[in-house]
Amino acid sequence: MLKQSTSKAKTLGWTVLVLEDDMALQNIILMQFQRSGMHVMTARSVKEALDLLQRLPTCDVFWVDHSLLGEESGLDFVIKIKKINAWRKTPIYVVTNNDGDDKKKRYLHYLKLGIDNYLTKYDHELKEIVQMIKKDIQKIH
Prior knowledge:
Blueprint: E1 3-5, E2 15-19, H1 23-35, E3 39-43, H2 46-55, E4 61-64, H3 74-81, E5 92-96, H4 103-113, E6 117-120, H5 126-140
Parallel strand pairs: 2-3, 2-4, 4-5, 5-6
Antiparallel strand pairs: 1-3
Organism: Candidatus Komeilibacteria bacterium RIFCSPLOWO2_01_FULL_53_11
Protein name: Response regulatory domain-containing protein
Keywords: Phosphoprotein
């Protein structure tokens, strides 16, 4: 399910695409970004995200979970998005719960693809991650 939402708080005009399969967590993330004044678009799978991006005039940052609905992962999304000129330079934050044995290998793979940050959800408070992303966007704009 795709969602588009904005905050009633002062809007900064920045848009974040949250690619997260867990609906409850997706809604919490959405509310945190709204409170910080950002527009939020959400998707639960790579296909949903790519379909949404075809209709989206702008996106300032991607929040990407590694595990997603369907057979494709966040890694697949990053590979595909880096091939699309319009989105190639958009900052990507991989924010995941995955902390298995292959974490280091997966982390290095994401870095080679050019992501901006790789964070595990349990190491950071959600509000902290949102503020980190907001500060990075402010540097760009």
